[in-house]
Amino acid sequence: MGNPAELASQPLRDDLRLLETAPDSSGEPAWVIQDIVQNRFYRIGWLEFECLLRWEQTPKAICQALHAETPLRPDVEQILEFRQFLEHHQLVRPGREALARLAARSQGNAWLNWNWWLHHYLFFRIPLLRPQRHLQRLAEKLDWLFQPLTGMLVVLLGLTGVLLVLQQWDTFTTAVVESFSVSGLASFAVALVLAKTLHELGHALVATRLGLRVGHMGIAFVVLWPMLYTDTGESWKLRSSRQRLAIASAGILTELALAGLATLGWALSDPGPLRNGLLYLATTSWVLSLALNASPFMRFDGYFILSDLLDFPNLHERSSALARVTLRRVLLGMNEDWPESFSPGKRRALVAFAMVTWVYRLVLFLGIAVAVYLLFFKLLGIVLFAVEVAWFILMPVWRELKYWWKHRESIDSGHRRAWWVIGALVLLLLAVPWRTQVQALGVARAEHQLRVFAPYPARLQALHPAGQVAAGATLVTLDEPDIASRLLSSEAGAKGYQARLGGLIADPSGAEQAIATRQRLDVQFEEVRAARSEMARLTLQAPFAGQWLDLDPTWQPGQWVHSREPIGILVDPAHWQVDAYVEQDEVQRLVQDGAVLFYPEGEPTPLNGKVLAIGSTRVSQLHHAMLASRFGGPLNVAKSGKELVPSPALFHVLIQLDGAPPSLRETRGRLQIDGQRRSLLGEGLIHVAAVLLRESGF
How far apart are alpha carbons 678 and 694 in whole angstroms? Predict the structure, then answer.
């Protein structure tokens, strides 16, 4: 093979069109190559245009001609890169080898190739309509819709709807929450289809009014998720960036107008099916327009709007190229040329935009990966999850690392030594078993505490004030009139039977009646003892010395108290324990008598303690509601009737504290428990192995 710079390039395809477009932001003239077969457009600059004028020559001859005939000073590598670009996008006539590859590809079954399935799983389009003729008629009939007066009226009505909804915001939010049902989700789906149809129709109508041809409309599948699309590729024919901006923003403006009018309709309509439908339409349009389509970090409408506002085509690709060079310069000290010349301020802004885009896409693609894993059966879910992570996250990183390795000789020696040191430190940090503490959540409580309840509904007579009480002190005195009445009645009956029994003993003929009377007297005595026993239960005493707390200040003597309503709590402030809950992977690291630091919620100073007991089985029920997520706590719980079942599995660990919390009440907090040493690398491997083991069962 000869030198590529001295080999003639393949001629361009005869069906291509070269159109002049608006100059770029620097004022340099620009052109567009139109591929009418695939309806694609490729923007080129002055250098590429001059190359096309001399395309029949070799790259070396083209470079020499440009030096001699124009102010441009390219090198041969730039000409070769442009030729590679044209060949990659099939803009040149295929040579003999290219024809052989195409023939072999057409004869084979492309769908048997895993790469074909991978590409079509990630993205494919199904054209449904070629609507140009219908769009022209519709654009003529809807000419009034594009007048300034109509736009002002729609904005005014939409703002009025928003103001009216804000006045009844509670009703609106309640209606939104109640709409999350099976029928509600189906209605949201219908509203979504309607909103997206009008969205795409907005793009198509504006493009038609500007004299462009809408090639087709259809459904695109992005990771098997259906999305409507409109082919407005001819927008690159327009020389005005404002006209391209009008096409790009037409969809979002249509949805915002629909959302505003639907919001107004909801605020003015009566409860019923019509109002529910307007609710679905309004919420769907607002969310999709503002949260999804307006984002410039994916290739949705927001991206094209931003590109047209800045008159900066290929914003993602060009900013990413700048960011990659920035990383190479900063991290590796590589003296690479910038892919484009910008002012320092503009370059920093583009690099920052690329960094934010990378983070946004990382979060989004991880979310999509988790979603596809959960939506499909386990085996397919694992495969699709791996494809998502590998294709969208690992492959871009791998390509950059390959570039670094390929150009490792150009890495600055100082940066290379610094990275070796950093790598060694990171490896040391990961591999050395320095991590000892186990994190946990728990509730501190008194070791001896007693919640005081009335034994049965009774009337309050006296209540000991809150504070320190001695063992045996009377905490609560209650009264139950029915029991007192029964006691008096039983005592009076007993006296009557005693008097009668005394008379029968003096009567020789009353022996048999005396026996019966004595039996009745015994019954009365038993009733008296039972009544007095019940009366004694109404005097509640402290079984141990402690603090008498949590009294209701509104209670007064004579007030009735229910048996299920706590009157107060008696706490022994000298001895406190913590019910701690530790994750399954961490509990094996704990040891008996291990040191503990307990941080009460809202307190910066910890309390010292030690491990008393470690549970051997997972907790089946969470006994402290203040820890449950259902009641605003930090631990997730699953629904199982009225029980609070922790999810994932947790183990109970009993902690003995050396002191009491400042509040002397049950206190939620965090714990740091000393355990066996373990490296972060070892923990990570154990966690990965546990996940693989858990997910390996089909």
Answer: 22
